[in-house]
Write a structure and sequence with these properties.
single chain; alpha/beta; FAD/NAD(P)-binding domain; 2 domains; about 25% helix; 7-stranded mixed β-sheet; binds flavin-adenine dinucleotide
Length: about 300
């Protein structure tokens, strides 16, 4: 039986696990992928500069230091474990698809998922070459080329940051199609279409063109890749399944000042609570959640 199981090994999960361990808990991290770091792996450049302690470094360095600390503290990690179910008894029993894990407290740090063409109800052909922002960044960070003529669908100016990251990797962009009508002062040397809505995706096998409604007028644009940068929603399915109280504005779980959800003993931190939680917010919440979960396990 573990004291604290942390679900998700991204920035907030790693920090929560360290804090729980430092507060005397036997800790396990369950991570669905084969590596730690979550979205931190696709943050680029200097942008992870943090106001908190020693974390004012580039993302890669922060990630490397956190992973080293996890190992030096002897925290157990299980990879390839997608948490699918949780049963409440006197303690919690987590089902990973491979085994049952017993624990006194749980910290959810499962991050967010990107909105897709299906979430946005964009009709057309089912073609390759349509990526969410995270997928596109993951691929280019691993050195892969996602396409030659990339169009970016953008909501709330999210696509502008994506474009900057793609340009850093030498990707050619045919345009950013931003839903907002209000223009921002920006000069990336690529066209930005405001008041634009992608309404159709066409191609044989691979995307070849997209139909865009700009100020109500429909136009076709040729491209071989579409990156959807339309924001993220919390990966909070398990909270819905457990019938925890949810916050409609964030679509994440309601938490108290200890980052405890409406279910006693289940805590949450980072972007699963609020998709707009930035680096410092994720670190701060994770420290609170890790300590509170350790305290809960001692009860
Ligand atoms: C595209 C993008 C770019 C960003 N760029 C920057 C940047 O440049 N600078 C910056 O400061 N911030 C950036 N951010 C924000 C930053 O990534 C977050 O503040 C922080 O990394 C969030 O960490 P997290 O631990 O909450 O979530 P995540 O990093 O998403 O980690 C969640 C982890 O949980 C795992 N997981 C999910 N579901 C399950 C499950 N059911 N079972 C087991 N494991 C599961 C995932 O595999 C993942 O490892 C960016 C975010 C995104 C999406």
């Amino acid at each position: 039986m573990y004291d604290v199981v942390v679900v998700g090994g991204g920035l907030s999960g790693l920090m929560a696990a360290l804090e729980a361990k430092r507060n005397g808990s036997e800790v396990l991290i369950l991570e669905r992928s084969n590596e730690l770091g979550g979205k931190l792996q696709i943050c680029s450049g200097e942008t992870c500069n943090s106001k908190i302690e020693k974390y004012a470094k580039r993302c890669r360095e922060v990630l490397r230091d956190l992973v080293n600390e996890i190992h030096s503290e002897g925290i157990e990690v299980m990879y390839g474990r997608h948490v699918e179910d949780i049963k409440r008894k006197e303690h919690f029993q987590i089902y990973t698809g491979l085994e049952y894990v017993d624990t006194k407290a749980i910290v959810f740090a499962t991050g967010t998922k990107d909105k897709t063409r299906f979430t946005l109800n964009i009709p057309g052909d089912r073609v390759s070459g349509v990526f969410t922002e995270s997928m596109a960044l993951e691929l280019i960070t691993s050195g892969l080329i996602i396409g030659k003529n990339v169009a970016i669908l953008s909501h709330n100016y999210e696509g502008i940051n994506t474009a900057k990251k793609l340009l850093e990797h030498g990707i050619s962009i045919i345009g950013i199609f931003e839903e907002h009508e209000k223009e921002t002062s920006l000069n990336l040397g690529i066209p930005v279409y405001y008041g634009a809505r992608v309404t159709e995706i066409r191609g044989k096998g691979r995307v070849e063109r997209i139909r865009v409604s700009i100020d109500g007028k429909s136009q076709w644009f040729s491209c071989d890749t579409l990156v959807i940068s339309a924001g993220r929603i919390p990966n909070a399915k398990m909270f819905l399944k457990l019938k925890a109280e949810m916050l409609p504005s964030t679509k994440g779980p309601v938490v108290n000042s200890n980052m405890e959800s409406s279910i006693a003993g289940i805590f949450a931190c980072g972007t699963v609570v609020d998709p707009n939680c930035d680096f410092d917010c994720a670190l701060q919440q994770a420290k609170t959640a890790g300590k509170a979960a350790a305290d809960f396990a001692k009860q």
